[in-house]
Amino acid sequence: MGKKTLRILIIVIFLIVLSGIYYTLFETQKNKNHIIELRETGFYPKTITIIQDDAVLFRTKLNETFWPASDPHPIHNYYPEENFDPQRALGPDEEWQFTFTQAGTWRYHDHLNPSLRGEITVLPNKSYTAYLPCKKETGQCFDELIRKTVSEKGIAAAYALFTETYAKGELPRACHWTAHQIGEEAYELFKGGETFPITGETSYCGYGFFHGFLESLLRENPDVKFALSFCDEAERQLGILGLQNCYHGIGHGFTEDPPDPSVWGNFEGMVAPGIEICEYLFKNSFTNLNLCLTGVFTVPVGFAEKKEYGLSLSPSDPFAICREQPYKYQKACYGEITPKLDSILEGDFSQFPKHLAGITDEKIRNLIIWVAPSVMVAREILKDDYGGFIEVCRNNFVGIEREICWGGIILGFFTHGEPEKQYKKGISFCKSQLFNASEKKFCYKQLFHRMHAEYTEDKIKNICTNEVSETYRSSCLSKNQQSIYKDPVFE
């Protein structure tokens, strides 16, 4: 036997032996049962690696209910089969077992305390099985990338990634959702002792950052004094809008998600604890009280939209819940249900005016006319033609209501538009040939009002000088900007 043949034979024997060792190890690990316990410090072990078709048994050492479920909170849909969720809270003495048939890395949390997290990596049980690190169609890949970026590079890097992705038209999530997630991840840094600046980026997408951060903070540690001190710092760095959205976050954080089973089906029972906190903190200021209440109402209204926990919204009368509220709470209630018209009407903006039938209170009507287009325009935010929106406002409203409707569309550009470039959509909108001269003048004034509320003086000057036609330039530069919508007090 030649040396070359001998070498080949040795290599073949080595590979056979190696494959046998792998097979033996694989068979000993395959179908193994694993245990994850919820302890005072969180899930233990926090991260594990298993083989496809292994089962994981979840249990708790705490004398309280728990609810392990797939990320993201609260929709639990990252895991492909959408059943990594026991669908209910588990008692202290209960166990729940789940078999992982899908390879990938699956993050999960306690639905009753979303700050408690864990991660399970499922290796394929065949060497040729596709390994799926994330579920792209649900936005999981991007969510995981945002999470990793915050953890490893910080808040600024996450916002830079977010802005870059938005500019490419590849953002898989709603703008507010992503900002909310960055806030949640920022809280994880804060909890670990790291500090971060409250920069202008945290104002993106309707201040979703504050909602995520404060929701996580208050549900884990309901320290009202700290929350208020954080809001004071937000005002110092970002101004009044930072403070206001921070107050909204406080109401959001003090409203249980998910609710205690004792109040399922009871809207009033769900909002009662949050209302109590808001009244305690802000009873002498309707503006601040309302901001806090919007954070309270948005939670059960979200349940009702998804028909969860015994709540639902009537497609023919979605505002029925609000009519039962004390008048000073109605602004918050109507303001939080109005965005849900988008899902009720499946994005058909032309149908939203019909829900104003029977609403005679001027304040409530104006609120709905202002909020509905600001939300529904989000579906079309990457497009350039908003003629349909212009005509719906024109054909269904007159006078001040028509102008409020158009102003709501502009608000939508700033709430959902590309960070730092929201004004571009506004300029394009106001240039529409569907507007006559006086309507264009009005449109630009509303656009300039939003710009002055969102941007620095230097940025405004640059936009007005270089991107606004000379006809409207002086109006753009003027600091005397007013909104067509006068935010009313509901006493």
Question: What does this protein look like?
Answer:
The protein has a 4-stranded mixed beta sheet with strand order 2-1-4-6, with no helix packed on it. A 4-stranded mixed beta sheet has the order 3-8-7-5. Helix 13 runs parallel beside helix 15 (399-416), helix 17 packs parallel to helix 19 and helix 18 runs antiparallel to helix 19. It has helices at 3-29, 140-153, 155-167, 175-191, 204-220, 224-238, 240-253, 267-282, 286-305, 320-323, 327-337, 341-344, 362-376, 387-396, 399-416, 422-430, 437-454, 457-466, 470-477; strands spanning 33-39, 42-44, 47-51, 55-60, 68-70, 96-99, 104-110, 113-123. The N and C termini lie far apart (100 Å). By secondary structure, it is of the alpha/beta class. The protein is built from 19 helices and 8 strands. Among the domains are: 33-136, Cupredoxins -  blue copper proteins (Immunoglobulin-like, Sandwich), CATH 2.60.40.420; 378-491. The protein is globular, with a radius of gyration of 26 Å. Helices cover 53% and strands 9% of the residues.
Determine Rg (CA atoms, Å): 26 Å
The N- to C-terminal Cα distance equals 100 Å
Q: Percentage of helical residues?
A: 40-55%
Order of helices and strands: HEEEEEEEEHHHHHHHHHHHHHHHHHH
What topology, given as strand order, has the largest sheet?
2-1-4-6
Task: Provide the residue-averaged pLDDT.
Answer: 86
Which shape, going by the Cα principal axes? globular
Oligomer: single chain
- DSSP helix count? 19
Flag low-confidence runs.
12-31, 127-132
Label the structural class: alpha/beta
The overall strand count is 8
Largest sheet: 4 strands, mixed
Strand content: 5-15%
